[in-house]
Write a structure and sequence with these properties.
Length: about 90
């Protein structure tokens, strides 16, 4: 399945406890739309995340973000590159 990097910008700092509390709702929306969250990075100022997702297309990510009421400011298709590929 294609992978996408999603940049999300938030007005307020994200707290991990709030993120944890909202995760079941977001996961339910992701399942409904057919996207899978792989992992995320949280910026030092806690106002931006960079999330790696598997999804059939970018529109599915936009739909999940709308339904979950979270931003999806930049969606970039990505390919995985690892050091083992160059060994």
């Amino acid at each position: 399945m294609p992978k996408f990097l999603i940049e999300r910008n938030f007005a307020e700092q994200l707290e991990l406890e709030d993120w944890r509390a909202n995760n079941p709702r977001i996961e339910a929306v992701n399942d409904e739309v057919g996207v899978q969250w792989i992992y995320s990075f949280l910026s030092a100022d806690k106002r931006k995340t960079y999330c790696l997702y598997e999804a059939p297309n970018a529109e599915a990510i936009r739909e999940a973000a709308r339904k979950a009421n979270v931003p999806a400011d930049v969606i970039t298709p990505v390919d995985e590159v690892t050091p083992a590929m160059f060994a």
